[in-house]
Amino acid sequence: GAVVSQHPSWVICKSGTSVKIECRSLDFQATTMFWYRQFPKQSLMLMATSNEGSKATYEQGVEKDKFLINHASLTLSTLTVTSAHPEDSSFYICSARGGPSSAGGQYFGPGTRLTVT
Amino acid sequence: RKEVEQDPGPFNVPEGATVAFNCTYSNSASQSFFWYRQDCRKEPKLLMSVYSSGNEDGRFTAQLNRASQYISLLIRDSKLSDSATYLCVVKLYNQGGKLIFGQGTELSVKP
Known about the structure:
The complex is a heterodimer of chains A (117) and B (111).
Chain A: E1 4-7, E2 10-13, E3 19-25, E4 32-38, E5 45-51, E6 57-58, E7 67-73, E8 76-81, E9 90-97, E10 106-108, E11 112-116
Parallel strand pairs in A: 2-11
Antiparallel strand pairs in A: 1-3, 3-8, 4-5, 4-9, 5-6, 7-8, 9-10, 9-11
Chain B: E1 4-6, E2 11-14, E3 19-25, E4 30-38, E5 44-50, E6 55-57, E7 60-65, E8 70-75, E9 84-92, E10 98-101, E11 105-110
Parallel strand pairs in B: 2-11
Antiparallel strand pairs in B: 1-3, 3-8, 4-5, 4-9, 6-7, 7-8, 9-10, 9-11
């Protein structure tokens, strides 16, 4: 099946610093990538949708200047959390679409757990 | 009102029990429906799609009622390995195929 990787799997950073999370589709070309955030005991919330080569579309309430998304190729998207604060601590999960038909052809990465101290 | 609502849980059941999860959705434009399973600190994994005709995969049975905007998942003969959080998910084709997740219902199967 289609595989999506994320790196790093976990990261601890100091408040005010920036963190970059990579999402890669390993064996298929992802025309669309989605970034989600999940706080403890809560649902996955879609942050933004990105199509290769174009600007990301952010969900209401998500600051595009704080969460920078780049989808420069069909296999790589990055999410940069700028000037991170403790309230940004969360589980960030990417998802890529474009592989074989299953769940609408959308595959999830293993997630990145961010802790901001 | 949340777009996708699920039973609050947690559900604590003995091995071998039958357990049912319910889910309702508010967006009538929702076109596809799924149940995902999420283990602690892991990404969600697709369990099964849900169809109006009902579908079964081993011990799991899913059902969709479009008129009531209601989705269900039945797990028979529950195993310890079924312990996880079960997420009800709807796909909105009129919004670029966005997946909307319910909060999830935690299931704990005890020996």
